[in-house]
């Protein structure tokens, strides 16, 4: 792709067997992951059995669980979500095969333009990051899949088929989850039906190679996602989320489970009732970790503000409208590790929230 930049990927550094993390990856001591500050996740990170929503006797209790998790942390895991384990495994296998390709093959998809529909890269925003992160990724637009799949990697040969099946399945799940989340806010479950159907889905396929000094760096810095919902599949633990008291929790790997995270668009749409979750990725000296984040948002140029039903005299609109394109423009022009969160630029009166 045009504009592709030259870089040394995290995977390449691991393959070279570097004994120390290069200086550009070393975080200031205050930003490093401190194991002593990680809380026990057992009670704070709920797992929701989605099949219970189909049972009248269990539905009310399950909706309460979702409402509490949404208000308190903007995060929960789901089981019995309808995506077959074989589809999830195939997607992780496809990710593994892609990142094991020779670098020159992966570089065919490299670009320093964050607007590219398919983009391979390293760190977060390699050209702009003052500090780099121990992560390689490939991102691709995925909905409607017929518009984009021909641009995805053709090597490995099964990549499009395996990742495509997962992308389609998780798009269906996202629509179901959005209906439940809207209902939990007291809104009509079909309130955003057209926006969700015509919205954007970006798959961010991540590889976090084994790292010689994992206490000095991160795979991704603390951030919140721009969209409405993110659905995450991880091969092993490594994700950490922050609660409203600024405590970090390591997210356990739930067998056949998927992680649901709220993004900035949902915080804005809920007028601050639900918050986008701040999260980060840690790395390990022993394990290579893969994750597939399905990032869902409204259409690229469509601006969204707080839902009218959630705005009144007591609860005025706390946020300005924004679009996915606004976020990309912000991301391409700012160093997110040292700057403010994108959502902070949208708040009308931060002191009251």
From TrEMBL:
Its main location: cytoplasm. Pfam families: 2OG-FeII_Oxy (PF03171), DIOX_N (PF14226). Keywords: Cytoplasm, Iron, Metal-binding, Nucleus, Oxidoreductase, Vitamin C. PANTHER family: OXOGLUTARATE/IRON-DEPENDENT DIOXYGENASE. The lineage of its organism: Eukaryota, Viridiplantae, Streptophyta, Embryophyta, Tracheophyta. The keyword Oxidoreductase applies. PROSITE patterns: FE2OG_OXY. It is found in: Cytoplasm; Nucleus. Gene3D superfamilies: B-lactam Antibiotic, Isopenicillin N Synthase, Chain. This is Fe2OG dioxygenase domain-containing protein. Residues 198-298 form the Fe2OG dioxygenase domain. GO terms for cellular component: cytoplasm; nucleus. GO terms for molecular function: L-ascorbic acid binding; metal ion binding; oxidoreductase activity. Involved in the regulation of shoot development and salicylic acid (SA) homeostasis. Belongs to the iron/ascorbate-dependent oxidoreductase family.
